Amino acid sequence: MRQKFACQSRLRTLGLYFMSSPFDDCAFDYNQCRPDYPQVLFDDLLTEFRLPRDALIIDIGAGTGRAALAMAARRVRVIGLDPSPPMLEEAKRNAIELGLLSVSWHVGAAEDTGLPSGIADAIIMAQAFHWVRPAEALTEFQRVLKPGGGLAVFWNSRDLTQPHLLTMEKLIKTYNPQCHSRYQEKAWGDVIDASGRFHNIRHKLYRHSSRVSIEGIISLTRSFSYVRNVLDEARTLAFEMDLREQMAALAQDGMLEMAYITDLWCAESKP
Length: 271
Fold this sequence. Notes:
Blueprint: H1 27-33, H2 39-48, E1 56-60, H3 66-72, E2 77-82, H4 85-98, E3 104-107, E4 120-126, H5 134-144, E5 145-158, H6 163-175, H7 188-194, E6 198-213, H8 214-221, H9 225-228, H10 233-250, E7 255-269
Parallel strand pairs: 1-2, 1-4, 2-3, 4-5
Antiparallel strand pairs: 5-7, 6-7
Helix pairs in contact: 1-4, 1-8, 6-10
């Protein structure tokens, strides 16, 4: 029997923003242009955590639902939480298009989910754990999880061994010198271990890619918080013009290969 819960109605954030999200005004671009995650990753999570068919998965920082809906397609129950109502509206539309109507969507925070204790078989966070206060969030995750419940945090990172992706990265830093993707360099296993609430921590890498048009790459950058929320209109126009020219010089038939490395960390909650 499914457990019900009362989700608190006040807006919360993942940890850094109060009453708002840095992605509120770019939900459409985020939904249209951000890459998917490797499908095999979600198959691996079912195996890693030995999830039964009726398992309950909480996707925290669910955004437009990419990870939540990938799990729901595998016939498990899913609750998606995010601080941004516009992002969740995109997630709901995606769920309707895919016919995955059993997913429950709620505004919520990593550090204070508003969920009952011990209800979840696993918690996942896709492209979101770097936004939270880890000690508080991991305490909350352990509370919400069943004893031994699984935790999976994962990110897509652009493969900078690809010349056009390195060119894009350098251009972003030219326009925003403060841009540093420090989460890509962080030892997240150590962060999880330091909480003292999880064990059996392991790391896995996946590689995947897709072909994208030059305009698709421009739209992708409009979903980057370190571009959209930093550059003013004039600088944004200049950046996009430079990016379009540099990508055109490297493209074949107007298309480029967007190659990603996905880092996954898994662990189980201590009893």
